[in-house]
Structure formats: structure tokens, C-alpha cells
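can u pls check wat happens w/ zinc ion
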Amino acid sequence: MSGFMSGTGAAKKAAQSNRGGGGRRHAEHAVQPAPAGVAQPAVCVRVALPTPRRQAFDYLAGEAIAPGCRVRVPLAGRRVVGVVIDVEPHDRHAGPLRAVEARIDAEPILPPDVLALLAWAAGYYHHGIGEVLLGALPKPLRLGRMPERRRAQHVRATADAAAALPRLARAPAQRRALGRLLELGSCASDQFAALGLDPRALAALAARGLVERVDAASPAPVVPPAAPLVLTADQAVAVAALAAAAGFGCHLLEGVTGSGKTEVYLRAIERVVAAGGQALVLVPEIALTPQALARFAARFARTAVTHSGLADGERTEAWLAAAAGDVDVLVGTRSAVFAPLPRLALIVVDEEHDASFKQQDGFRYSARDVAVKRARLRDVPVVLGSATPSFETLHNVERGRYACLPLRSRPGSATLPALHVEDIRGVELKAGMSQRLRAAIGAQLAAGNQVLVFRNQRGYAPALACAACGWLADCSHCDARMTLHLQPPGLVCHHCDMRAPVPAHCPQCGEAVLASRGFGTERLEEVLAGAFPGFEVLRFDRDVARSRERLERRLERAASGVPMVLVGTQLLAKGHHFPAVTLSVIVNADAGLFAPDYRAPERTAQVITQVAGRAGRAERPGVVWLATHHPEHPVIEALRAGGYAAFARAALAERAAIGLPPHAASALLRGDARDAAKAQSVLAGLAQAARAFATPGVRVRGPVAAPLARRAGRYRLQVWLLAQARPALHRALAHVAARIDALPRGSVRVGIDVDPVDTF
Ligand SMILES: [Zn+2]
Ligand SMILES: [Zn+2]
């Protein structure tokens, strides 16, 4: 009975060792160039290759190779894998060409619609077609392999399982696995990792007779929910609007946390899947917990998941299954926007305002914007969901380009939390918390509720200083302070990840008393645990999330509803549901209010609203405390008076008045080098070229130092381009891109960032 578990591991090994030309369908064919003197029709194929060069490369082939097929070609003394993007008769090409060495695929692995999308993205973001195309493939495919697809095995809980659940108290791993499996109905072996099912625990459950294998050759695609929910009036309107949508259309599903956006997605996807279509669901990385995924997997038997936390083999399997049409719903992070889906009929982007949809290095694309483009190319609807929509999206609603589907009420009797602004000027604080605030937290705990404390700074303290001479622990590679961590102890640079031990004495004056300055989540955890000894304090931040299992255990512990304090960063503000939380606290909102980036107020308002949304779910009303030295700051006043919508309306009008995005199009040239003078001269040259070429509607500013002027030993500069009309911006960028390509290779790196989301 337990044999099916061990079989999974063996299949995985076989798939991993299957390098190059494994599958029968994908045996490599040597491609013969036309022998000299023989008049044989030859073709020229244009190949995208894994190099930063912006253009594709031409090769000679004895036969036409369809675009989307991989080939092996010589490049600068190496053999590399590339993707054919175009074919034309050889006689149109001047000059000698090298020959394609081998054709890897008989059939294209990238279908025409995905190729077209990638080509558009390479053009729009002014990035090399090779890195864009190859980057869209899972790693084994990028390396020229074709892993054998393995047939997933499905498991489910047996009839006795639910009754046996309480008996598993002393086997927590098995209890968790069984609980999850009961929620899911059944689960395919290739989804165990994504859905947090431990194969060893499942094997042990199988040995107890609580889990069995099911033959799921043709599972019903849509599984009706055990207890069908009654939709609110707003949900019903949104569901009906999406059902009536035909062809391309962009719909903003605007609803506060807890207003039931997911149920609207699920209903819309149900229709699509029942009609034989596929749905693509993009989510921020941070929200991708097994709990969140379980809702999709429980409803749609053929759900696949892909994100960077999974092993290459699992990601590849999801990609291949989606491409083969064996998946009805693909849930994934950013890069899933490029996955082939032959029957794609609906795209959902959840938490569309989330900054993680924008890739922050290399190919700097916005998965949300690419998703909208993909929907347009495929002529299918796209749904953007958010409680705090991005200004770009709100602007498109204002202009009538996007339809808005508001979800105003929360299902059930839950009401929105009240915002209490706590003026902390002149007040004695402990880790940012006043005596009044600590008393408010204590009262909620005593009443059996949970409290959430938000602080967007991990570690113990953002700085370590000498009280005697003023020395500060700086990173030697960045213009930044080292952060003090206690678990494990050490100084860490959050920009370059450099680590150093905590010095016993001041390195400058020898004084032994070094003191931390400011506070992070570790310090808050310490202070809260000391103040409320009878209650648990659970911390959630990137340091905790390094172990997915630990993060999940903590989330489940929080979901139990036991009175406790949850303290953490963004990780707490996004996606997770904590029904027992009745008080949300933002201990210091001030840093975000005065950041140099013009987008800082938008982001701060989003975070405050998202944190506020954690409080007061279900039948318990919630309260939000916002501690600030600037209670009359316009962002806070606007939020207090009219919530995010009122704030956004005012802030958008302000941006329009001074011609900032989304009322203008913008791009950054980002350059860095070890030698500051070299970076300055290259960026100044590019700025000058942009100015000389730019039409009157384009403004060019810089070069100026980036807000973090030195990072990991490299000096960073930027040039900002701002245009009233997008075509003018793209013409200027194309001109600059040609200049960048002509730069000598090496010391100065320059990248183009179209529609930047931050200037850091
Ligand atoms: Zn000192
Ligand atoms: Zn550093």
C-alpha cells in the first residue's frame, strides 16, 4: 500500500538523470548544411540565444525549423541552446553563416501566441530577446533537455480518516497532512510539495489505512464546494459581469480584504473550466502558502502550481502539463505569465498592486502588465483584484479603459475596522509602543483575541552604535548600516547580505558599550513577550520564512485562534487570513511618509490599508492603531477621512497636476560600476544622447546617484526619462539602447527599466 510513495522518488530521479534527447519525440536531429557545390535550398533561421545582446543571431539550416523549436548552435567557441524565432530563405541573407548543429525539438515547445507575447515584451522593455525567451523556459528545458512526463498518482483520505483525526494528536505531521487532504478531497503526487503535503507523513497514513491511492484518470474538472457560499449582492454582480464578458476586457475587482474576491475568481474560473478552457492565476510570491492554494486545488481537480520555492523538476512538470493542456488552472507567481496554455480563456492577477509582480533585475518586466497584454492578444478577459489598486490601474478605470467591479461589503456580519491615529510626539516609547498602546494590546489578549503588530523592519535593530564616540556599524560595501540580528547573532547588511560578528568593543575608540538604535521585529518580539508573559508571541518575517515549513507551522498556529500576538513585516500584511485578530497595530508609519520616492505615499497608504484589513474578520469587530509623530500628515488625514479610495483620488489628481506617472510614461536608465567616475561618464553620455534625440515631449533628468548610491561595492547612478506620450518615450529608449549595445563590454553595467516601480 505504501509503495506509491516511494515510486514518486524513483520517478523523480529518472527524470533528473534524463539529460538531452531523452524523449522519443524529442531525439535531436543533426541538421546538415547544404554541401558545397550542390544547389539545395537552404534556409536562414533567426535564433534567440542566452546572451545579454539585444538582437537574435542568424544560422544556416538545411530544412525549415518552425519558430518555437530549440536548436543547438555554435556561439563564440561554445555550443549553446537557442530558440528559433524566424525562418527565411537563405538567398535573402548576405554574407556567410554558420550552421545549426542540431535541432532539439521536432515540434515547437513555445507556441506562437507565447512567442508573440515574449517578442512584444522584449521590445516594450527594451531587453535582449535571447534572455527574454530563454528565461521563460524552466531550467531543464533551457539547458536543452526534455524531461519525460511522469504520470501523477492521486491519493485521498479513506472513509475512516475523518474520525481518526483526533487520534493523531501525537503525530503532528500526519495530522496536518491528513487535515489538508480532507480539505482537498484528493491530491496528485506532483502537487504534494506545492500544497504542503509531506510524502513521508502520507506514507505513514497509508500504512495506517487512512490514505489510499485513487485512479484519477479522468477526474471531474470542477469539484462543487462542500458548503456552497451565498454570494453578497456585490459578489453576485461581479460574477454576472464576468460571466457576460466576451473577448478582451480588463476588470478591476476592487474589494477590501475579506470582501470575498477569491470566491469571485473561483466562480469565474468554474465557468471557464466547465466550458473546456484554462485559467491562469497570478499571485504575489508571499501569498503562495499551501492554505491559499488549497482553495483552488479543492475546487479544480487539475490545478498546477509553480513558483520559485519549488524544485526545478516540479516547476518543469507544471509547465509541461500546462503546455500539454493537462491542467485546467495554473496558479503561479510572476514568471507563470509566460507559461504556454493552449486553451487559455481567463487571466486573474490577485493583489495586482503588489510590487513583487515587477522583476527588479535583468529583464525588468511587470507580470501584471504583461498579463493584460496577453489577455488582449488572446482576446480573453483579465481580472485584476486588489483592496488597494495601483495608481496605474485606477487611472485606467478613470479613463474608462478598465471596468470596475466594487465589492463593498464583507460577507457575513463583519464590519471594517475603525482607524485610531495615536499621536506619539513627546510620549515615552518602548520599541515604538506607548504605555497606552501596550494597555490596549493587553486588553484584547485578556478578552481572548489576537493582536497583530506590523513593523516593516526585520532583525533586532537597524543600527548598532557606540555611545561614547558615535561610531556606527556600516556595511563596507554599501552606503548602508548593518542590521543587528540576535537569532542568530550577528550584523547583516540587508542590501548585499554581508555578515559580520557583533564586535565586543567599539572598533574606533575601544569603548565596550555598544547600543542598538531603533527596533526591528526581533526587538518587538522580545518586548511583547516580556510585557505579556502569559501569551504566545509569534514572529513572521523573511528570516522565519526561510524555512517554508516553519512559516507554515506558525501560520497554522495563528489560525487556531488562541489569543496571541503576531508580530511581523509585509509577510503579515498580505494575503493571510487571521480571523481572531481584533487589533492591528502599525508601530511606526513615519519612515514611509517621508521617503524620497514619489510613490512612497501610495505604498504607505497601501500597507496601512492592508494591515488594517487583517483586523475584525468574521463576527468580531476590529480596531487599527497607527502610531505616528505626524498625525496631521496628508496621507494619514486622507486615509482617516475617506479610506484608500479617497486618498488615491486626491493623490492621483496631484500627480496629474505635476505630470507624473500614471499621467506620464517613464523609464530609468540604471548604471553601476566599481569605478564611480566611469559610471558617471557613461551615464552622462547616455543622458546626453537621450537629450539630443528626445522629442520635445520627453524630459531627461540626470545622471543622479541612486537613493542607495553604493551597493555591494558598485556605484549606482540613474537617468530618468519622463514623457507625456508613450511612443516618444520608446523612440528615445530605442536610440539609447543602440548606444548601450555599442558600449565596450565590461566595467559599467547599464540596464533599462521601463515603468519603474521604485527608484531604489
Ligand atoms: Zn566608540
Ligand atoms: Zn552591504
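The longest strand covers residues 698-711.
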